[in-house]
Amino acid sequence: MPKLKTHSGAAKRFKKTGTGKIVRHQTKTRHILSSKSPKVKRKLGKSMIVSDGDHAKVARMIPYA
Q: Across the beta sheet with 22-24, what order do the strands follow?
């Protein structure tokens, strides 16, 4: 089998934890923040685990992470 290429866009956005879960950052944090409450902005700053439905697709894009 040939080596698999890492999707360079996905490599910048996702990383694997020690237990094999994939972590991502949240969207809607770049601009138009004045209309968002402090509570929402605080929650958006934290990272999340990729959902089960997307896990296989993202894992295929970052095979060596």
A: 15-16, 22-24, 48-49
What global pTM score does this model have?
Answer: 0.85
Q: Cα separation of 54 and 38, whole Å?
A: 29
DSSP 51: P
Would you identify the CATH topology of the domain 8-27+35-61? Factor Xa Inhibitor (4.10.410)
Q: pLDDT by residue (tens digit) across 2-50?
A: 999 999 999 999 999 999 999 999 999 999 999 999 999 999 999 999 9
Domain borders along the chain are 8-27+35-61
Residue type, 6: T
